[in-house]
Amino acid sequence: MSNPNKITGLSLLGAHFTARREAIVLVPYRDGMMIDPKDPTHQDKIERWSVGLGSLARHGERTKPLTVKKAFSEFHKAVRTREQSVLWALGLGIWFPSPVPVLQQHVDSVFSLYYQGGSDGLKAVSALVRAGRMQEAADEFLRWDADAEGIPRKGLKARRELERTLFLTGDHGALNPVRLYRGDPKTTPFEEYNVTERDLKGWLEPDDEDDE
Questions:
Q1: What number is the average pLDDT over the span 159-174?
Q2: Closest Cα partner for 140 from 154, 127, 155?
Q3: Average pLDDT over residues 74-98
Q4: What gap in Å lies between CA 42 and CA 59, rounded to an integer?
Q5: At what angle do helices 154-169 and 12-22 cross, to 10 degrees?
Q6: DSSP labels for 149-203?
Q7: In the 8-state DSSP scheme, what is residue 4?
Q8: pLDDT tens, 99-125?
Q9: Coil vs helix vs strand at 108
Q10: Edge-to-edge strand list for the sheet holding 55-56
Q11: How many CB atoms lie within 10 A of CB 200?
Q12: What's the CA gap between 147 and 73, in Å, rounded?
């Protein structure tokens, strides 16, 4: 193993960093396009619906609205299913170990990139990390500022700059408040929500267990 710092996954600060960049949306909303899971060629795309903190709305526009508690519970599950991929990609597993120390700030910043942008950005940055080219890895973040249609977006550019800063300095920046939308984020004003450590640990009240 090449994990001298005993990094086991995304930190609470890293989760908070990602949550602030995602925002909380309590209703399903159109969120671009994605590969059709029913297409064996992986070429056909269908409309993607999201909910919560960037989670896939499994029933599209028919997905039930979430509570804030359930949104964070779903976020917690999404983190757990992704963070090992980030650790292994960065050389914190038994394969392709990085020749330079990989710190928590690297995991947190790369996780944010992967969570929003998918595996292509993860592969590009982590390959440079495993080669020990850390400055180039940091600069690579800035290349991933386009949406699924390949259109550069100011919001994504700003996020990539924050991720690059975190990668280089360990500064997670401002973490609260997080934007909270009770309707479609394209048409609904947002509220400000202050995320707590309890939110980030994925707690779930019994009344929320049936929400989707």
A1: 98
A2: 127
A3: 88
A4: 20
A5: 170
A6: TS-B-HHHHHHHHHHHHHHHH--------EEEESS-TTTSPPEEE---HHHHTT-
A7: T
A8: 889 999 999 999 999 999 999 999 999
A9: helix
A10: 55-56, 45-52, 24-35, 178-181, 191-193
A11: 21
A12: 26
User: What's the token pair of residue 149?
Assistant: 């249609």
pLDDT digits over 26-58, tens only?
Answer: 999 988 765 655 555 555 566 789 999 999 998
Alpha carbon of residue 133 to chain centroid: 23
β-strand 55-56 against 178-181: which pairing, if any? Answer: unpaired
Arithmetic mean of pLDDT, 136-162: 94
What value does the mean pLDDT take over residues 146-163?
92
Collapse the DSSP code of 109 into the 3-class scheme (helix H, G, I; strand E, B; otherwise coil) and give the result. helix
* 3-state secondary structure at position 147: coil
Query: What is the helix, strand, coil percentage profile of the chain, to 5?
Result: 45, 15, 40
Give residue for tokens 């390959």.
127
Mean pLDDT to the nearest integer, 183-193: 96
pLDDT, residue 2, reads 46
pLDDT of 209 strictly over 60? no
Which one of 1.20.200.10, 3.20.20.150, 2.30.29.30, 1.10.530.40 gives the CATH number of domain 12-201?
1.10.530.40
Cβ density class 73-99: b for 16+ within 10 Å, e for less? bbbbebbeebbeebbebbbbeeebebe
